[in-house]
Write a structure and sequence with these properties.
The chain has about 110 residues and is α+β, with helices and mostly antiparallel strands. It contains 4 helices and 4 strands; from the N terminus they run ααααββββ. The chain has a 4-stranded antiparallel beta sheet, with helices on one face. The longest helix is centred in the first third of the chain and has 18 residues.
Length: about 110
């Protein structure tokens, strides 16, 4: 039995955020939708990141409004002024050519 869209997206979100937290921005960039990568170059993406800022990410929920668009609610942990803080973060993921991609808010 194959995985549900929600399970696949949860795995991809977790993998993308693991790469962000590890500072592996080349890998994290690969999760951005093909259209998003035409707008944001790898170097531009790297320049937008803050190494060491993000400390953790947890998927709270995945809700798919259509077969090709799902909204993900995350809880992101980061360090600000020496204190760890958690904040909610919404992401949208889209299905293109049978694969789920992070929709870049450019």
């Amino acid at each position: 039995v194959g995985k549900s869209d929600e399970e696949v997206i949860t795995e991809r979100v977790q993998d993308r955020w693991a790469a962000v937290i590890a500072g592996n921005y080349d890998k994290a960039y690969e999760y951005i939708s093909p259209a998003g990568r035409t707008i944001m170059t790898l170097q531009g993406f790297k320049n937008s990141m803050k190494p060491g800022f993000h400390k953790g990410a947890r998927v709270v929920s995945v809700k798919c409004g259509t077969p090709d668009v799902c909204d993900v609610q995350l809880e992101i942990e980061y360090e600000f002024q020496g204190k760890r803080t958690k904040t909610p973060l919404p992401e949208r993921w889209v299905k293109q050519d049978g694969k789920w991609w992070y929709l870049l808010n450019a």
